[in-house]
Amino acid sequence: MRIIGLTGGIASGKTSAAQLFEKLGAAVIDADQLAREVVQPGEEALARIAETFGDKVLNPDGTLNRAALGGIVFADPSARRTLEGITHPAIKKRAEEKLRRLREAGTGTAFYVAPLLFEAGITSRVHEVWVVYLDRETQIERLMVRDGLSREAALSRIASQMPMEEKKKLGKIVIDNRGSREDLEAQVLKLWREEIADRRQG
Ligand SMILES: CC(C)(COP(=O)(O)OP(=O)(O)OC[C@H]1O[C@@H](n2cnc3c(N)ncnc32)[C@H](O)[C@@H]1O)[C@@H](O)C(=O)NCCC(=O)NCCS
Ligand SMILES: Nc1ncnc2c1ncn2[C@@H]1O[C@H](COP(=O)(O)OP(=O)(O)OP(=O)(O)O)[C@@H](O)[C@H]1O
Question: What is the pLDDT of residues 18-37, one digit of tens each?
């Protein structure tokens, strides 16, 4: 099974691109989704987060208050690293399980969509890395609109990741998402044909 790591900066369009690849028939594993699964009530990671950061990061019903925890960790790199120390091993374990199941099912190509593919050193687990790229100003705008964040909050989230220009240099393939959704769809379709479907036939 060929595993393509799909990464990029926050709000660069990884999920949007992955959904388009999925529509064309690719298998997709999304690290952000796994990150949500490992903090569901009853999971060990949630208990450790509450022990470490206090009850203020829990909602009254015991679920994780994502806004409260995000407010802490995106303003404090050492708190962010503590959180990653709790969640990343659990996320990696789930990703491995999902990849194993896809392999057993005879899947040809799987995308592993992860915002922190480079930062968390997961590149050795994938065969190649594709980067969804966006210029900084468009990134700030799309992030503010999607998550209802102030400019300052958007900038602190962006600052917690490797600069997009650096990620762009590290990708085998760069998907440029500065244009319209139609532009993105056209690039995905071309990559699907040239990099996945044709190679499979050949
Ligand atoms: C801090 C949390 C609760 C905030 O939740 P929220 O719903 O506001 O954001 P969400 O999880 O949807 O993430 C949105 C984006 O933020 C960025 N982001 C998330 N975690 C991190 C991090 N540790 N470092 C840098 N960027 C991050 C990613 O680009 C991600 O796509 C959440 O992001 C979290 O649990 N993060 C730690 C787990 C992690 O590292 N996830 C990234 C995927 S491995
Ligand atoms: N080409 C585009 N034109 C306009 N808006 C877009 C385009 N591509 C994506 N978007 C929007 O930009 C926002 C970010 O896209 P998306 O959620 O796919 O990014 P992401 O890289 O998965 O983000 P994250 O790292 O936060 O998970 C979304 O609101 C999405 O609808």
Answer: 999 999 999 999 999 999 99
> Residue 132 pairs with which residues in a beta bridge?
8, 175
64: DSSP letter: B
ipTM of the complex: 0.96
- Ligand 2 is surrounded, with C-beta below 6 A, by 8, 10-16, 32, 115, 142, 146, 177, 180-181, 184
The ranges assigned to domains in the chain are 2-197
102 Cβ inside 6 Å of ligand 1: no
Distance from the CA of 77 to the center of ligand 2, in angstroms? 24
- The number of the ligand nearest the C-alpha atom of 45 reads 1
Match 């209802």 to its residue by tokens.
148
Question: Domain spanning 2-197: which superfamily?
Answer: P-loop containing nucleotide triphosphate hydrolases (3.40.50.300)
CB of 7 within 6 A of ligand 1: the answer is no
Three-state SS across 12-24? Answer: CCHHHHHHHHHHH
Q: What is the pLDDT of residues 143-181, one digit of tens each?
A: 999 999 999 999 999 999 999 999 999 999 999 999 999
Ligand whose nearest atom lies closest to the CA of 139: 2
Tokens 């300052």: give the residue: 152
